[in-house]
Amino acid sequence: MLQTERGKNPSPEVAAGEPLAERSGRLAELTYLIAHELRNPCTIIGGFASLLNRVMDPADKESEYARIIVQESARMERAIDAVLDFSRSLVSDQELRSMVELAEAAVATFRSRHPQSSVKVTCPANDEQLMTRAGGDQMVSALAEILEQLWKRSREQADLEIEIDKKSNSGRIYMKVELPETALESPRTLIANLLASERDPNSLPLILARESLRLSGCELEWGAAKSGETYLYVDLPLCEEPNG
Amino acid sequence: MAKAIMCIDDEVNLLTLYERELTDSGYEVVSCSGVESALLALAAQPVDLVVLDIKLAEEDGLQLLEQIRRQHRDLPVLLHTAYPAYKQDFHSWLADDYLVKSADLTPLKTKIRELLEI
User: Which of A38, A216, B5, B58 has its CA 20 to 30 Å from the CA of residue A87?
Assistant: First the structure.
């Protein structure tokens, strides 16, 4: 049974007067518990479907049904992961992090899911350490999710790149996509479709990734170079590393 | 002789799944759904590895981890949990490895193999 750590629900009067941080904390706690309650059944359903799929004759129609359950439970697991990451971003401390490290961690997370993918990180030309304040794990998850969406929408054909660059008062994380000539759509269309997909019920992980970015005070934007190259980017405020 | 793995989880259906999958992979599986039964089983029968859930109904898997560490110092313990945030809890550092639950049991089997090979 789902129950908060505090046990009882607060009275409406208490809730109304509660500071925002506490309400966020409570929301994060509840979100986390809900996601957890969903994960175990999802693991069990997907695990047994996978087992059935393995032992059944592949020629049986029922084997195909088992495979579909495996696929759908994997999709649900990803949504649960996204909800868990988001719930942590509601209460996480903003810590001083190197933008290059954030990008490299996001690429490593993405690569662990898609070892066959092509993705690289390009650092600032002058090797400058660009530091920002961010909920580190959540920022990494959000960037990894955006890479994931670009990868999936390119039908797993794109070469992906995260590039870090310094703007006047901020550091910019570019996410670029290069498609083979045979691709059915251009990077511009792919990015436009991705940004327009918030109403798509299958895009929960992306929606939550964008919300996580907003909680870190930044927004997923798009831009185009004079050459016509289209890209996604996130601007993060730069912070100085404390001395000593 | 088959290596013995103890799975500790309060979800009985998950234990059934682990039993089947790990037995198919050639392991002997001992299943426990709570702290007390796990400690009794460990005292009665040596195992080669423990797969431990962190949230065991009203009981705490991390406390059980500490007890296992005290009583069976060299026994590898793999934390297998639905809570990714516990990775940051220093109590979980007592474990040999940490894995988030997934319907895809391939990472679990890989980790078990790695830990048993060390």
Answer: B58
